[in-house]
Design a protein that fits this description.
Helix content is 5%, strand content 51%. By secondary structure, the chain is mainly beta. The protein has two domains: 3-36 and 221-459, 3 Solenoid (Pectate Lyase C-like); 43-204, Exo-inulinase, domain 1 (Jelly Rolls, Sandwich), CATH 2.60.120. The strands form two sheets. Strands 1, 2, 3, 4, 5, 6, 7, 8, 9, 10, 11, 12 and 13 form a 13-stranded antiparallel sheet that branches. A six-stranded parallel β-barrel has the order 20-22-24-26-25-23. The longest helix has 17 residues, at 18-34.
Length: 460
């Protein structure tokens, strides 16, 4: 039995835990709706293209972003959007050296290079949650905590309205209030220290009435508590179209196309032919959102560079829902939405870089994601999958380990699979074009298929 299936055995006690089981699945559905991943960087692509540095010496070393100038007074690196409001940012942080007047920190709501919130690891086994305003520091809270060079710590900051909370390794260090910054990017920082940073993730933590992304229709659960040993699976929760848009050929998209939840149809023959035209072709940096794609959908969406696909729903995938073709590195995002009836795969990754999939619902598919194993060019490809619901799908991700592909998973809910047959991560040996890649295994490891089957996968 595959390692990805044999360790995760969640059993709901009969009757007594029925309501608890229902509540757990409902909570998961709400998480998918309101905790979409806004940004993620594992640095597996070997670059910091999505970051903007200010001071210090930055590079990617051993799969992590490193600031190596221990004598730098103020080294910062920023990422994300200046318009982000309420969110949670987490990162793994390892101080390499730490002078007596030094610090290593994670930043949230960076309004400028000198105004932000900071969770700082300090010498003397201290951690502080700080509000930094034009370089002036106000301590919102602190705690004694072992801080050792050469050790990894998971830092997290949640900003919601005027409330700021800092955590280390999941434990709350401090919570305070401040009006220093209402919006801003994320960042990392060192002062008279060197450090490594990895697994940076930003999730939407918007409060009532405020959101960083549009509300996504998500799977819902029955309001009848289960009376058996397994909770009921969510239904599709498919959105209702607001109108129809006729498609006679490929629609080019540069900038942003907001479909307003119209149903776009139709193109192609609904089959598996690789020669079908896409319904949408996204230029580098383009965004498509709030679209229902009817059947037949041709070859779905083509992303020519990096792109964002937000709240897009495929009624019947046909060939592929989307193909990522960009070869310039960087990260493309699939945020929310859902897809049904993909006899082969939903997302095909032919270029390089990273595809980040979050808040997605997939039903009746062969694979959710496949890194091309026999394209003309052989690249290292990476995928990050979080906060998704999977139903009647054989494989979540297939990658090529001989090319250094990585797949990271967190908060994956597999419904209606009491036998745990769904494969989380399939491994292949990539081959030149014209040959067929060979399957070489599946399941978690420390190099390519990155997840904990006991904590990252929920069998509901």
């Amino acid at each position: 039995m595959e390692p990805s299936r044999k360790h995760r055995r969640r059993r709901w006690p009969i009757l007594a835990a029925g309501v608890a089981a229902f509540t757990a699945v409902a909570a998961i559905s709400m998480q998918v709706a309101f905790a979409a991943t806004l940004f993620s960087d594992t640095f597996a692509d070997g670059n910091t293209n999505d970051w903007s540095k200010s001071g210090g010496t930055w590079s990617v070393v051993d799969g992590a972003m490193q600031q190596s100038s221990a004598g730098s007074e103020n080294a910062r690196n920023f990422a994300g959007s200046t318009s982000w409001t309420n969110y949670t940012v987490t990162a793994r942080v390892k101080p390499q050296s730490l002078a007596s007047n030094g610090f290593v920190g994670l930043l949230a709501r960076a309004k400028s290079s000198t105004t932000f919130y900071r969770l700082a690891l300090l010498p003397g086994n201290s951690v502080q949650l700080q509000a930094v305003n034009s370089g002036s520091v106000t301590v919102l809270g602190s705690a004694s905590r072992t801080v050792s060079t050469g050790s990894w710590y998971t830092l997290g900051i949640t900003v919601s309205g005027s409330s700021i909370t800092g955590k280390v390794d999941g434990a709350t260090i401090a919570t305070g209030t401040s009006s220093v910054a209402a919006t801003g990017r994320i960042g990392v920082q060192t002062g008279y220290a060197s450090a490594s940073f990895d697994d940076v993730t930003v999730t939407d933590a918007a409060g009532p009435g405020t959101s960083n992304s549009p509300t996504t229709p998500v799977p819902t659960v029955s309001d009848t508590p289960p009376t058996s040993s397994s909770p009921p699976p969510p239904s599709s929760g498919w959105p209702t179209k607001t109108g129809d848009a006729s498609v006679s050929g490929t629609i080019p998209v540069s900038g942003t196309l907001d479909g307003g939840m119209k149903r776009y149809c139709c193109i192609g023959d609904g089959g598996q032919s690789e020669s079908q035209d896409p319904m949408f072709e996204l230029a580098n940096g383009a965004t498509i959102k709030n679209v229902i794609i009817g059947a037949p959908a041709g070859d779905g969406i083509h992303c020519l560079g990096t792109c964002t696909i937000q709240n897009v729903w495929w009624e019947d995938v046909g060939e592929d829902a989307a193909t990522f073709l960009g070869t310039g590195g960087g990260t493309s995002y699939v945020i929310g939405g859902g897809a049904k009836s993909a006899s082969d795969k939903v997302f095909q990754h032919n270029g390089n870089g990273t595809v980040n999939i979050s808040g997605f619902y997939v039903e009746n598919a062969g694979k959710l994601y496949r890194a091309c194993g026999n394209c003309t060019n052989s690249y290292q490809r990476n995928v990050v999958v979080s906060d998704i619901i999977v139903k009647s799908t054989k494989v979540i991700a297939g990658i090529n380990t001989n090319w250094g592909d990585t797949a990271r998973f967190s908060r994956i809910t597999v419904v209606g699979d009491s036998s745990h047959k769904t494969i989380i991560c399939d491994k292949y040996k990539g081959v030149p074009k014209g040959s067929e890649p060979s399957h070489i295994g599946s399941g978690p490891d420390s190099t390519n298929c990155l997840y904990n089957p006991d904590t990252d996968i929920i069998w509901a």
